[in-house]
Amino acid sequence: MVRLIPVERGGKIVWAEDAPDTCPDGHKRLVPTTAGCPECGEPIRQWPCREPGCTAPVQYDDEHVHHSRK
Ligand SMILES: [Zn+2]
Ligand SMILES: [Zn+2]
User: Fold this and answer.
1) Does 40 map to a domain?
2) Strand pairing report for 12-17 and 33-36
3) What single DSSP character describes residue 66?
4) 2 CA distance to ligand 1 centroid (A)?
5) Is residue 16, in this structure, part of any structural domain at all?
6) How many CA atoms lie within 13 A of 25 on its CB side?
7) pLDDT digits (tens, 9 = 90+) for 17-66
């Protein structure tokens, strides 16, 4: 699961996803989505980068454990 972290918004503390701010190449155009894991196909939280031409690997939930394909 993606961790939730307390974030202040408009004077209130709310719980937000501990999502990355930038892709591995430093772009700030990440779009949160839920899609199949590239390794095992299980639906997981991912943050693909929408910067044109970006070739960095898609970041995904770092607590995800791949299902074995038995
Ligand atoms: Zn990028
Ligand atoms: Zn997986």
Assistant:
1) yes
2) unpaired
3) P
4) 21
5) no
6) 15
7) 889 999 999 999 999 999 999 889 999 999 999 999 999 999 999 889 99
Computed from CA positions of residues 43, 3, 8, 20, in that sequence, does the dihedral angle turn out positive or negative? Answer: negative
Domain that holds residue 26: 21-64
Is the pTM higher than 0.85?
Answer: no
Closest CA to 30 of 46, 16, 18: 46
Half-sphere exposure of 40 (CA within 13 A, CB side): 11
Q: Is residue 2 part of a domain?
A: no
Domain count across the chain: 1
Query: What spacing in Å lies between the alpha carbon of 69 and ligand 2's midpoint?
Result: 10
